[in-house]
Fold this sequence. Notes:
With 506 residues, this protein is of the alpha+beta class. The chain is 29% helix and 24% strand.
Amino acid sequence: MIPxxxxxxxxxNKRSNEYPNQVTDSxxxxxxxxxxxxxxxxxxxxxxxxxxxxxxxxxxxxALQHRxxxxxxxxxxxxxxxxxxxxxxLVSQVFNERVLAHLPGSLAIGHTRYSTTGSxxxxxxxxxxxxxxxxxxxxxxxxxxxxxLPLREELAQTKVSLVTTTDSELIxxxxxxxxxxxxxxxxxxxxxxxxxxxxxxxxxGTPAGVMGARDPNGIRPLVIGTLPGNPVRYVLASxxxxxxxxxxxxxxxxxxxxxxxxxxxxxxSYRWSPKPQRKLCIFEMIYFARPDSIMHNESLYxxxxxxxxxxxxxxxxxxxxVFGVPDSGIPAAIGFAQASxxxxxxxxxxNRYVGRTFIQPTQxxxxxxxxxxxxxxxxxxxxxxxxxxxxSIVRGTTSRKLVKALxxxxxxxxxxxISSPPVTHPCFYGIDTDTQDQLIAATKSVKEIAEQLGVxxxxxxxxxxxxxATKEDTNTFCSACFTGDYPVTIPEQVKRSKLMLxxxxx
Length: 506
């Protein structure tokens, strides 16, 4: 048997023994589930002898916190020995100076998690650490495999110890299996990747160095940065904002189907997939990644402003002011204002100190319109015809409540513009977009959605406009959540299991 590396887990958060399951963490009603696609995960890796790699990883994860707020972890390597600390909670809750001081080494990897495969619990926190004949392996994963069930069955037959319910552990175990059969780290990783189907951007720590890899479609992002000095030190991160915070310079993306190995000799690149075909998730650009992160040689803030200008060209309307839903809708709202001539204003104030809370409001609080995160500016809005811009609608529940709050603030007309097309299909590649029967645009027309939300008009950005605004080859993006055209075939068993999960737990 391949034993799971024995670690002492951090003390559970005192407010809860375990975070609730991602689907049932509100109450048993779709009315109170999130109205946005839920985040991916954030990964980080660094090889920098003579630097405090644990602290640098902490700050890298801090910058990537938006990609997952359920758990966080860091693994460091010192003289072949792994040191690991992970727990439920935000990066700032899981780590402090004392904890980081007990994570020595010259290389580190980190992870901040939102659960897609595997429920939200301590056992599933990452990095996943496995023992092999070559020493410890630590793995951080962003994405989601679509062949989890057969891969789990294959590995179970070899009598490995399956401790978690994540597909990330399966990837680590597959690498360990190949290494224990005689492969080196590079060959072992490559063999394991060929057994994986779906989306995976990985950062892997070993006694020999740090590896980074992407699936053949590059669905989830991964970038390489450099730290100044002699010799040059290398950093891996889900987004460039994870590089900026520690003063690293963006070098390039890890390419689809590429594996990079960072050691004391520098960075080496290997093409492990013979036929890569780039299909970056378009939602990374629309919503998930931070607006200050760079993709395709520009900030995503700039792309999102372009989306706003495009939807203004497609469906403008006469109004007094335009504003965005903070924070993700603001760049598109500014672009809309620039293109339409409608003045931009702030109509909503976001309470940025409200994170995820697991204290449920009372029923009377719900009925009175609890506004924990967004509050209308009544004196700005009263008597106005407004255009409100948002990046997406999933169920419509939050949007309906927001429109109601605007009406109560004195708005006389509400026109909603969405800077992406209607979400009609679920994602199976690391984003939680719910099952198809719960996606409002999959079951209702735009007119019906407008009636349900209570708006005077509603318009979505066209699929063509969204892709053309990238100024890149439109065939290099995954937009399956809008079209149902999945770049990696989704097994029927996976589709059914997601639907059954919805029926069982909601």
